[in-house]
Amino acid sequence: MTQSIKAALLFSLFLIGSSPVLAETAHLPPFRAIYTSEMDLGISISGEAVRELQQKEDGHWQFSSAASAMMAGIQEVSEFDYAQGEQIRPLKYDYQRKVLGKSRRASLDFDWSAGKVTTVVKEQPWKMAIAPGIQDKLSYQLQMRLDLKAGLQKLSYQVADGGKLKSYNFVVTGEEQVATPYGRFNAVRVVRDRGKDADRETLIWFAPELDYLIVRLQQTESDGKTYALLLKNLETP
Length: 237
Prior knowledge:
The chain is mainly beta. It contains two helices and 14 strands. A 14-stranded antiparallel β-sheet has the order 8-7-6-5-4-3-2-1-14-13-12-11-10-9, with helices on one face. A hairpin with a 3-residue loop joins β1 (31-40) and β2. The longest helix has 12 residues, at 3-14. The chain is globular, with a radius of gyration of 17 Å.
C-alpha cells in the first residue's frame, strides 16, 4: 500500500465528525453514522467509515470510529464523561491500525485527579502533565460540535497526541449548500488553520439542521491529491 493510500485512510478517521444531535440536555444521544470515502490517487478508490456513540452502563460515554480501504483498517475508541454546560472530558483513548498484516496500537489513560495522562506505545508507557480542557483525537471532535453550536467562529483545541500536546485550530469561513447520499444540506464551512505557509488544505462542512453534524470533508495534500468524505446514512434510536 502506498503512502498516499495510508494517508487517506488516516485522514478519513482523523477528521470525520461526531454525534448527529448534540441537544442541549445533560446527555449526548446515541447514534451511528456512515460515511463514504473517495480517494483520487490516479485511480478511484472507495471506502467506508463508521462512527458510533453510545452510553455505557457506568454512565460514561464511548465514541468509536472505524474505517477500511483495500488491505488496511483503523479503529479508534474514546471513553469520556460530559455534563451540561461543561467541556467533554476524555478518560481513555485506544488506537489500532493494520496495514498489509502489520499492526500498531497506542492507548491513553487520563488521570484527572493527578493531572496526568499515560501514553502506551509498543508496550512502553510514559506520562505527561495535562490541564483541564485537554482532549484526545476523538473527543475534541465532539467538543468542536458543541462549540460551533454555541456560535464560535474560531476553534482551538489542545490534544494529547503521541505523548505531546498539539494545537488543532479551525476557522469558520462561510456557508454553502452540500449534496450528500443522505440528502442536501445548508452547511457551515470550516477550514483547518495550519498557518500561512501550509501546503495542505482541509475543509469541513457542518449541517446546522443536524445539530452541526459533519456532512462533507475534503483534504488536498501537498502533491495535489484529494480525499473526500460524504454522509451516507445516519441512525438514531
